Amino acid sequence: MTKTKWVGTDVTRIDAKDKVCGTLEYMSDLSFPNMIYGAVLRSKYPHALIKKIDTKRAKELDGVVTVLTHEDVPGLNGFGIAIPDQPVLCRDKVRYMGDAIALVGAESKEIAEQALELIEVEYEPLPIVDDPEEAMLDTSPLVHETGNIHNHVKIERGDVEAAFNEAYVVVENTYFTPRQMHAFLEPESGVATIDDDKNITIWCGGQHPYRDQLQVARALGMNPRKIRIINTPAGGAFGGKDEITVQIYLALLVLHTDRPAKIVLSREESVIAGMKRHPMKIYMKTAAAADGTILANEVRVVSDTGAYASLGGPVIGFAIEHSCGAYRVENVRLEGFCVYTNNGVAGAFRGFGANQVTFAVETQVDMIAEKLGMDRLEIRKKNGLRKGDIAALGHKMEASVGLLRTLEAAENSRLWQLREELKAKPGAPHKKRGIGIACSFQGCGLGKGLPDYGAATIELLPNGQFAVGVSCPEIGQGNTTAFVQIAADYIRCSIDDIVMLSGDTGHTLDSGTSTASRSVYTGGNALKLAAGNLHSAISTLAAEILSVPESDIDIEYGSAVSKSCPEKTVSFKKIAELMVERGKTIKGEGYFIWPVSETELEGYVGIPHLLYSYITQIALVEVNTLTGETEVLEAVSVPDPGKAINPQGVEGQSEGGVVMGMGYALTEDTIIEEGITLTRNFSTYILPTSLDMPCEIETIIAEELEPSGPFGAKGIGEAVCVPISPAITNAIHDACGVWMKQIPATPERVYTALKSKEVP
Amino acid sequence: MTLGFIRPETVYEAMEFLSEHKDNSRIVAGATDVMVQMRSAKSTGHAEEKPLWMVDITNIPGLSYVNFENGIVRIGAMTTHRDIARSAVIRDVVPFLADACRSVGSPQIRTRGTIGGNIVNASPAADSLPPLTALSARLRLISRKGPRDVALEEFFKGPYRTIIEPDEILEEVYFEAPESSSGCAFLKLGRRESLAIARLSVAVLLDVDESGKISKAAIAPGACLPMPARITSAEEALIGEIPNEEAVHSASLEVGEEMVRVSGVRWSTEYKKPVVCALTKRAIWKALGVDED
Ligand SMILES: Cc1cc2nc3c(=O)[nH]c(=O)nc-3n(C[C@H](O)[C@H](O)[C@H](O)COP(=O)(O)OP(=O)(O)OC[C@H]3O[C@@H](n4cnc5c(N)ncnc54)[C@H](O)[C@@H]3O)c2cc1C
């Protein structure tokens, strides 16, 4: 591998200073002269027909500039990444409490909100569907006329029945997972402007500026080129800003008023209208031989996508792909349903369907180990995927596979080595300690059948610095810093000489989403190609300057050198000066297309993947047997991100992921009853606080370099929050002998499980 | 709805204003309850009682203090949870009140939220109320008509309801300092380590005489009764006993029974009843000097 100066080192995040000092301006901090404030009228019912919308009184209110309804949407009145089934502004029907009916633009936020109360909407409430399994019945009310089953995935391999018959142990359970909320600090918000030629610019935290551009253009019936989207910086996203949030509303407001506009959702509105993680009911029957070999897995998943599709379809596919864990399983019967209900909306969320099924399968594996009296780590090592293995969907693990490396590093961690000692001294007689372990894999990229590409630009600036552009937005994960490091090592310059451009359709080429653990791999590969093209342009000019043939030019850090006559060198700065003098530009573009798996699953897109990141995580917990409270005392997280471009960045992702997965395992759930969200803010939606974090999270990076990745990198943004959840519930079992089949494992659930164990 | 905002500089000014605008004013102290209530009224769509005048009393001097004189502890209504948790007097004389105030919300909330607001808001889960109830605290209310003193236990009518008149200001809460031989404990069960509203809590105040017998007992649970109250049956189970597991156990059972008697059986009872017993047991032992945590 090429020697690097920046990649692999803990370069300080390029946005650290501004973020720490509070000087960084997020989208909601931006303001323009003469700006109006927007507010959205949401539905009063989770399911109803709209009979009449009367905006007259609202329009008459002093300070109201415009009141818009479906009639004012010039293009397609719909959005949605997979299918545009969600109305921009509802015309005849509402399907959840977050559905938008009207949009007000006013001189102040207060007036806009007041105007919402003056809009009269006549509804005819419809019976609601709030149970996804009931929604699948023919007798159920329809959320969409096309039927309530949005997507159905079914994959069978081998002979499941035979395997169950010959198995030594079979475990069969049903698991339930919660509706986790992204809970980004910055709610959905943004500003927009419009110029005299009706060019619209929208600043809005998001995860794919070019797709936002497309969705806005489609709704406005406008040429996408007239719309510029700026997604960076986003104050957190986690998948929850992958879909359109307020971009179209901003565009409508500026289009209809010719004035700048701003919308900032309140936390309550964000909770009600925004995306969530799909709650799933997972039936799983797993068979193993006496030696621990996993023989078969039968899985049935029902996923609640709420009122609209968004990415519910791909999420169920991804869940099925990951439902047998990071293991070789030859006989599988896997079935998944993605179902419409009136329960909010669910979409992309860090982990993308892996979190739910990993909780189930990693519990199953622990149960099997217990029945066989086998070590929990050994059973994972025994069945764990190796390079060249055939995974559950029948596809070959062709790329780098670091699972074993992560399991071995976890085995050698202090926590695992000292586990008996650490468990032996709980804080009080009524407290019990346990250690749990779990591992998983995480498909990187969009998967087979979906166009997955990236592009990057590098341009030599007149002052000798380089403008580096990758459109994958910075959503807090640190990808811009990684791009700076990667670019600096490919260009061979100092990181201080890089001006990073991110997430802006005006200044960067389309590199796709900041999702699917893909942005570093995609952007990095595109940068590699761009740097190659840049070097050719630099070499041409350098050859001229040094009076040597172009083929004699070598690029070193900071300069071009003659290979034959090494004292002949010219710095990038000097080259830049001459470039200006001669009226030239030196620029490299790179276009990268993702490699895909050879296996094609007919009828499905997005599965399988070629590239996976791998991870093993361990948790030490203490359960209070009197109250059922669980405290996570320590955790170990062993990710395989391929090459860690910025090890400190990987640690940051790892620690944040552990806490997010801990919230999923123990406290977080958006409660929706009869279509109405009850947990509307952070006093009832229980996010962990700094005091709830484990005292120590040790991250051990287990790099398994990926030859196709930039400097060997894959991705790590998602895997870090996945197996920690079952590691925690497995630790609860280790502590006090109860299996948690429903998360979050709240004090009540743990306590109830303990009680029912006492009285068999 | 239009909102008015006024910030009186003196108690007198505030009382004058309140007596004139009895029906359309609301006192604001730290605003940590008031703001949340206004916001949630908005987000649920039905704005209930819409206050017109917000009477901000944070500029009135002399309402934030902790005094200890002649065996009486007096706490000004505007004293924040932070100041109470840090007060040397409180930590020394009634450490369980310091513990309760330290368990409120987060540093930000403790720095703004006042004990007066905690009392008048009358949430069944308010953290200062169990210790204050165990201490048989009294309140001093003032208005243009003059002051009146009421026992804390008589102040509450139900969840979020009290007998305070719209023109009255809570000036202070006061109580007799317990004997120096006494022990106390406050335990709270929340859904997380901070920013956690009590799901259950309990305050215990005990005194043991020279013969080693429990001579005085006050037990006040929180978050499981509609309003603060002492559980006399539980207290009786302890009085006269030399501390022993059986007595502590039966006292704790009384708390669970009383909870069910007053609040009825709900979906959460199956969990809350045994857990409030467990919490009470630990609190009693902690008050007796045996701390398991
Ligand atoms: C995030 C968060 C976390 C919280 N956590 C907790 C917790 O863990 N435990 C807990 O107990 N509480 C908690 N609270 C609630 C709140 O902080 C406390 O009840 C606090 O003590 C209220 O005091 P305040 O000064 O802010 O009252 P305000 O909100 O100003 O007022 C509350 C009520 O009291 C009235 N009032 C205030 N002062 C007077 C006075 N002197 N005379 C007459 N009436 C008065 C007001 O009119 C209003 O009705 C939390 C609140 C938030 C927002």
Query: What is the name of the CATH architecture of the largest domain in chain A?
Result: 2-Layer Sandwich
Structural class of chain A: alpha+beta
Could you name the CATH homologous superfamily of the largest domain in chain A?
Answer: Aldehyde oxidase/xanthine dehydrogenase, molybdopterin binding domain
Helical stretch tally of chain B: 12
Any idea how many domains of chain B?
3
- How is the quaternary structure best described? heterodimer
Spans where pLDDT lies below 50 across 5 or more residues of chain B: none
The separation of the N and C termini of chain A measures: 60 Å
Gyration radius from CA atoms of chain B, angstroms:
19 Å
Q: In CATH terms, what is the fold-level topology of the largest domain in chain A?
A: Aldehyde Oxidoreductase, domain 4
Q: Overall 3D geometry of chain A? A: globular
What is the topology, as strand order, of the major beta sheet of chain B? 4-5-10-6-7
What would your notes on this structure say?
The complex is a heterodimer of chains A (760) and B (293). Chain A is α+β, with helices and mostly antiparallel strands and 760 residues long. Chain A is built from 20 helices and 28 strands. Chain A has a 7-stranded mixed β-sheet, with helices on both faces. The longest helix of chain A has 28 residues. By secondary structure, chain B is α+β, with helices and mostly antiparallel strands. Chain B has 3 domains: 54 residues, Uridine Diphospho-n-acetylenolpyruvylglucosamine Reductase, domain 2; 111 residues, Uridine Diphospho-n-acetylenolpyruvylglucosamine Reductase, domain 3 (2-Layer Sandwich); 105 residues, 2-Layer Sandwich (Enolase-like, domain 1), CATH 3.30.390. In chain B, 37% of the residues lie in helices and 23% in strands. Chain B has a 5-stranded antiparallel β-sheet. In chain B, a hairpin with a 2-residue loop joins strand 4 and strand 5. In chain B, helix 10 packs antiparallel against helix 11 and helix 11 crosses helix 12. The longest helix of chain B is centred in the C-terminal third of the chain and has 19 residues. The mean pLDDT of chain B is 94. The structure holds flavin-adenine dinucleotide. Flavin-adenine dinucleotide (FAD) binds next to strand 2, helix 2, helix 6, helix 7 and strand 10 of chain B. Flavin-adenine dinucleotide binds next to strand 2, helix 2, helix 6, helix 7 and strand 10 of chain B.
